[in-house]
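Shapes recur. One chain:

:::
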Amino acid sequence: MRLPFFLFALVLWLGFASPSRALDPAVRLGAFHHDIWTGEQGAPREIDAMAQTSDGWIWLGTTSGLYRFDGVRFEAFQPQGGERLLGKGITALAARPNGELWIGYTFGGLSVLRGGRLHHVAPVAGDPVGATFSIAFERDGSAWVASTTGLLHYREGKWTRMGSVQNYPLPRAEYVYRDHYDRLWASDGKQLHLLDRASGRFTPVLDVAPGPLLLGSPDGRVWIADGNRVRLLPEPAGGWRPAPRTGLAGSSFQTLFDRDGNFWKGNCPVGLCRSVPLSWQVHGAEFPAGGGDERLDQLWQMSSLNVHSMMEDREGNIWVGTVAGLERFRHNKLIRLAFPSDAGRLGLAHDGGGAVWGVTHSIGDVASLWRLDHGAMRQVATDQKTYVVAAAGDGSVLIGGNRRIERRRGDRVLASYPLPPLQPGDNPRNFVLLLAQDRDSIWVGIGGRGLYRWHAGQWLPPSAHPQLKGVLYATADAAGKTWFGLRNDRVLVREGERWRAYGPQEGIAVGGVRFIDASRELLLSGDNGMAVLQDGRFRPVVPEQPDMLSNVSGMAVTADGTRWFNTSRGLLRVRAEDWRASMRDPALPLRAALWNDVDGYPGSAETLVRTPSAFVAPDGKVWVAGTDGAAWFDPARLRRNTLAPPVAIQAIHAGGRRYRPHEVAAFAPGTEQLQIDYTALSYTTPERIAFRYRLVGLDHGWQDVGTRRVAYYTNLGPGTYRFEVAAVNEDGVASAVAASPPFEIRPRFVQTPWFAALCVVLGAGIVFLLYRLRLAQVKRQFQARMEERLGERERIARTLHDTFLQSLQGLILRLQVLAQRLEPGSEARAQLDRALDLADRVVAEGRDQVMDLRDAGGAPTLAQALVEAADQLKEGSGARVAVRTEGSCVQLAPEVHDEVVHVAREAIANAMRHARAGLIEIDLTCTDGQTVLAVRDDGIGLDPAIQMHGRPGHWGLTGMRERAARIGAVLVIRNRPARGTEVMLTLQGAPLAAARTAAREADSVV
């Protein structure tokens, strides 16, 4: 009878369990990751109700109010706009698919939280809703409430209390539940009633104990838990079928079925109990609620042994609310094995029959041998202390003890090799440190004695291989080579009886070589990292994060090519494509993901044991040895969190105030600093959620900020911004981008366009004022220079009048006396008279110059001055002079006028004296903005050397150039193409304008 009964239970469990989420029977309650939050971590006390709404938030109803939790921080609910909860004590929470959260209170009343705002559907305590036990929703959105004032139905704003008309006799309801078959169940604490949809009346189904609870199992069956039993309710028409997933979760008080079929019970009679499907399903339609295969019933195991509420969230985590706080149970990626607490250093190996062997060595030289078969662990009795276990190439394991080396497979001892006899001076302890087998030998390292070799039925002492000193590790490859890791970056390779050495010159730089893997690429590791042999040299393997590959003590390669490195920081996962990419490109850092204590890793890698600390067993499971024990996982059944983490922007802080994202559209002028709080509502491993964000309007790209859940911005200017954030969960599933409503930082007046325009106007005014001040300064300077120049002109005029003209006049008088003595009509008298006439004209001209120095007004025009100069200079020569004027010429300033006339006089004089010209043409052309004076002759021309440098001892040409430069004119002196010379003086608009301005300024000064 035992075999059919077992088969029945097995078939029942297989049909019940979820195909993708069923628990391995070897996973015990202690292997779950168990987190506890109490008041020290900000958790509220006395959590009586829990719910998870469609946006992902977990809500907690407590005796001190309503809270929400994102897996990291607890936040007390703060109503908006003067709203308030109907009471502090909350006994029931229920979530609807539309995002609503319904809230029931200890002293009555009912509220709905919708879109962040509170709506009271039963605002008066006790009328009609008293203390609320549970809430259920119909498909049409109406609600059923079980309370101390009866069973109530709320539809379209109206309440209906169930009574005799509906065949619900008692004025009290302790539970109401609508299952996924659309059946409505209600209990008054004495009987369970079922609503007949056709008649609208309730029918008693069975008697119950006080405080009943209805719940569904994953296979679709519906149960009632009352007292200390759980009973199956009648099967619906059409049979049982699994309930669809809704993404919502709600409290089931102290009892629930999880999605894997485990039955959880609180207060059994204290603490928490769990029954796996095989244990409770064998009872059929009724099983004891308080049995449990495992339990947590010690004060050190939980925050409190008084459980108030339980819930499974949409990721499959189990939440427990107690008197003291909140607890969570979730799956670990690694399943830990519970060795005795005093078990110390651990070594693992597997044989070809599927068994995993372990040895532990504790303080006091306590060494034990263990065997693990299909998750069951037992200690193996032996008459020696076992220190090392290693896998042999033939499917057996080698076990090293203080007496012998044993070769085992399963329950059989295949061979035994007594340790080498002690020699005088040897350490009598026989502590085996190292054990490895190659093609023809077994290598055994014994503490204090050295490395021995079992070969051809005898032990070869360390002196037979003296090069092997300080061996830290040994392994053999498939080609028959034996690799020995030594201290100080050294490796020795044995191939038959030939040896080869590798060292720093071949690129080894890991320190002592503690681990070698020769199953694929040749890898070695030490304190300073890991290296791989390529083309006869070892090159370092560089990880993305420093020290990630330090002290690797084991490597497992699964069927998909993923490499699992057991390191001092945890178990490192490297995908096959990432490994290949790093091998192709040595400069490419190796991408890897770390599993540590958050994932169930037991401490850090075991590095003292000189055998591999990670391997793949024949059944495909990966085993690792750590400093806190052993752990394993099945790569084919890894749980992956496929739910994208919903991202929520919680608050924006500015100016010492906290705003909800939708509360403010613009911040005050001068706001320069913002703090933005955000979170992701993923609860399996919230500490692994990675975020990135950007502030549109400021950031040009995304900022990757790791696990940080707050953003800070400083030195912000006015403008319009929008905050965006996204997250990736622990398994690389990305969320959608969450964005805040656009908000504005208003500018100060000094940051507005009006202020900028005002600054431009003020700047222009300042520039204009400075211009006027500068103009006045220049005017004063010009006036001073003019006064100085006028004074100098008057001094020169006085000097000319008192000296030169007076002397010249005296000379003329004496010549006149001499002329009178000559015979009238004589040639001499005529020449002297002509000379006296010329002298009179020179005196007259001198007087005119004196007058010009004293008064610049009344000067002749430029054309008149040219005619007079030509008339004066042609006297006594046979040259003809022609003066032509074209255009209307402006009156030049006196100093410009004089300089032009002097240039013309010099040009005319040169043509008469040196060029022996017969015709001199003077052309004055005045056009718009330009005056051109040209003096041309038909003489012998000008020697190029004289044209360039002037005639030695003469300064006429030099003076002409200086005068032209002084008035800003352009002077050109050149030979004409046929015959003669041309002198051309050109005054552009700027000198003319300057001349006119100077003339006006001079007039205003004088």
